[in-house]
Amino acid sequence: MKEKLFSWLENSSDMAVELETELTKRPAVSPESDGEGEIDKCVFLEKWLHAHGITKLDRYDASDSRAKGGIRPNLVATINGTLGENEGCLWIMSHLDVVPPGEEKLWDNDPWTVVYKDDKPGARIIGRGVEDNQQGIVSSVLAALAFTEQGLKPLRTIKLLFASDEEVGSAYGIDWLVKNHPDLFGKNDMVLIPDGGDPDGEYIEVAEKTIIWAKFTVHGEQTHGSMPDLGNNAFLAGSDLAVKLHFGLSQKFNERDKMFDPDYSTFEPTKKEANVPNINTIPGEDVFYMDMRVLPRYSSDSILAEIDRIKAEVEKKYRVTIDCTLPQLMQSKPTDANAPIVKNIGKAITEVYGVNPRPVGIGGGTMAAYLRNIGIDCVVWTKTQKTLHQPNEYALLDNIIGDAKVMALLALNSDK
After folding, report:
1. Does the annotation mark 415 as catalytic?
2. What's the confidence (pLDDT) of residue 121?
3. Could you give phi then psi for residue 374, rounded to 5 degrees?
4. Nearest Cα to Cα of residue 92 among 21, 149, 145, 18
5. Which one of 131, 166, 202, 286 is the catalytic residue?
6. What pLDDT, on the 0 to 100 scale, is given for residue 413?
7. Which of 94, 232, 345, 407 makes an SS bond possible with 220, Cβ 3.0 to 4.6 Å?
8. Catalytic site includes residue 166
9. What average pLDDT does this structure show over 356-381?
C-alpha cells in the first residue's frame, strides 16, 4: 500500500500548485490586521474538497461581527480508517489565516498571486501564506487524497482541521473549538500540527515556552517641555520600566534548557504607541508592550508577581500610575518525548527524508498548546524553509510532497 500512496503523491505536483494558487487568491487576514477573516478561503476549500471526493465535511463557525459574514469558520474533513474513532483518530491541523504582506514594495510580485519558479533552491511556490500555513493545508489534503483517490483505507481515521484565527491568538479557532466542542477530541487521538520545523525536517516540537504579552499604560501629568517639574513624564517612566523589566526579569529567571532555541527565557519590549504629537510637550500618558517567552519551568504567576514588584518601584520613583493588561497569556504542558505520536512520526520522517529527528521545544506559540492542556498528545512538525511572514515567502514543492508522504505513513502505521 505504501508504494501506491507514494506513487500517487509523486505525481500530484500539478494539484499542489493548483491548490496553493487558489488558496493564495483568497486573502484570509484577521480583523485585527484590517482583514475580512477566513470565510472566502474556507468556502473555496470546502467546495474543492467535495469536488475531489472528500465529502464528509463539517463546519464549526465561531461568531465574530468584525469578520465578513459575521463568522470565523473552522472546517473538519474526515477520511474513515480501519480502526473505529474510539481507537483514536489522527488529526492533522492547519490554519486558514495568514498575516498581511507587510511592505508590498519588498515583494517582487503581487503577494496574492502565486508565482511558480523551477530553479534554485528547487521548484518553489511564491506568495503570501504559501508556507505558513498553506504548505500544511496542501500536504494534508494530498495525503488524504492519496488514500481516497485509490480506494485505500488508512489504519486510523484521518481528521483534517482547517482552523481560523491562529495568527492572533486562536480565540475563534482551536481555543474556541476546545471550549465549545470538546467532544470533537478523544483521549486516544494523535495530533500533528504542520506549522513549524527546520529545513532538514529534524525538529519534532514537543514543548512550547509560556507566552505572555503585556500592555503597559503609564499615567503621568502632561506639561510644557521647558517645565518638567510641573508634570510627571510618562514617557520617561515607561522607558525606565521597559529597561528594568527587560534586564530584571532576564536576571531573575535565568535558567537555561538546551531543548529550546534560544535556551533561555526572553523578555522583550516591542510595540510602542504614539504619545504627544509635538516635541515641546512632556507626555502625560505613554503606552508600550512586551513579548515574553518563558521556559515552562517557571510559572506565569511568578513572572507576573515580579512584574508587579518592578512596576510599583517605578510608580514610586516617578510619581505615576501604571496599568498592566495581558492581551495573551498561554502556558502549555509539554508532550512526553516518548509518546506514541512522537515515535510514530519520527519513524515516518526517517523513512521519507533519511534524517534522525529529535524532540525540541520552541518559543513560538501554536495550536498544540490548547490541546496539550486538555491531555492530548501533539507534535508540531514540517520541513520548512522558514520564510513565513517574510516578503517573497515561498514553499518548496519537494517539501509539500515529502510532508504528504510523512502524513500518509503516519495514518498508515500509527501504533498506540
Report:
1. no
2. 79
3. -110, 15
4. 145
5. 166
6. 82
7. 232
8. yes
9. 94
